[in-house]
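Consider today's protein:

***
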Amino acid sequence: MRTSQMFIPTLREDPGEAEIISHRLMLRAGMIRKLAAGMYTYLPLGLRVLRKIENIIREELNKAGAQELLMPILAPAELWKETDRWNQYGKELFRCQDRHERDFCLGPTHEEVITDLFRREVRSYRQLPVILYQIQTKFRDEIRPRFGLMRGREFIMKDAYSFDKNEADALVSYQKMYDAYDRIFKKTGLQFRAVEADTGLIGGTSSHEFMVLANTGEELIVYDPEESYAANVERAEVSPPKELSKEPLKPLEKVKTPGAKTVEQVCALLHTSPHSLVKTLLYKTEGQEVIAVLIRGDHQANEIKIKRSLGLHELTLAEPDMVQALTAAPVGFSGPIGLQKVKILADHAVHALHNFIVGGNEADTHFINVNCERDFQIDLVADLRQAQEGDASPMSGGPLQTARGIEVGHVFMLGEKYSKKMEATYLDSNGQEHWAVMGCYGIGVGRAAAAAIEQNHDEKGIMWPIPIAPFHVHLLPVTPSVEVGTVVESLYTELDKLGIEVLLDDRDERAGVKFNDADLIGAPFQVVVGDKGLAKNTIDIKARRTGEVVKLPPSEVTKWIIDKLADRKE
């Protein structure tokens, strides 16, 4: 492809709207353009990357026995109401009506649609197992679309669904897809890690996220450096302390803490550490019930775990006026002592404490020397906090470490969640009816491209891994002589015939402009042809990732590139 014939509107300056590196570089390299918040046009250069990722996905899923189909983007509300997700999904679901005022939604995911297809078409155990997938645009009305392709309202996703006879067979399908994902992300050249994750609104019994490791990642993961264990902090288990405090109980005492609302302010005033203070967080449930959650001052509440422990779908912090009505105190002074008609939940670490500090349910007041059971009753003790670096690993017992990651794939064991609600059954060899056991599996295609940039860039631009680079070679003539033109055209034709993807910068531009754009676009190899080099019978080949420059005779350039691409294709 010649630059003069390709639409690549590169930018010299960083766009003001870009918040992270991938967003900035995709805009600057002429890969995407914003239409509206969370909605982007994929320009030719960007689309080439997406198609390469899609092809890797197709190759590995087909190898795993999955079959591709394509489902409608619009889904009737009736299907979503069968699974109760029409209301559960909330405002993220794009809803619309047809001319007959029938309700539909734009699919954010397709569990309902695929399950409806299964229940209509599959009758016998002989038709199982089956794994079906599609690569399609999805829609979610994110409250705050940001970071370019990382969190959009319209995005390309591969979603797959498995149907099996029983749990054991479903685990086999799950493992097939897990292994396929492992191969997919290895082939794309990404550094990643599979971590245990929460199932969220998709539901089901277990799930794993595939995280591309990057300092700019939105997700925080914890992992055991000595074991294979890794988990999203939303999902990571925190074991109860091995020992309860043996400190003798002290008399309860109320103290004045004027203006001290935060953990830091209270600790400074009372000359203690956050470890000795307990936060009382008041939450409102979906049924408008209020619960109190007790978390140690140096820990963070994990709302995913809180919801899971109570079987809730929604949980929000109580508004200040509700806090005032329940505790007779402003926010910052809530505590469990004397709370009426409020269920109290405590994290394991709180239950292990003696003589701690809590809010006094009175302005500018706290209690000290507080103890569970003696001073207030707990309704539930559970793992309610976010895991953090240094916590004991559930595998080895050693300290966990943390890293940031970008979620690019997710696999779920759904079990019978959807098949039961939608009556998706099959008949066994005895004619008995059973629920199908399901799994679902997603990959964010655009997110994978953006994550690759987050992991592969420098101050000049992108450094694409070979398998997903928009072009393998950027051919750069830097002087306009006849001899340079002849050599460049010969190389271009030879490489193209061999199936090596070449971008020839045939613009009438200064060498510096061409070099800057080549570094920005990030093809793995840059071939620089100029009069000075040809006078010595050499051509410069620069490896974009390392900056290493090799000087070769024109006759050896093609073989060198072929060898390098063969070494690093997989």
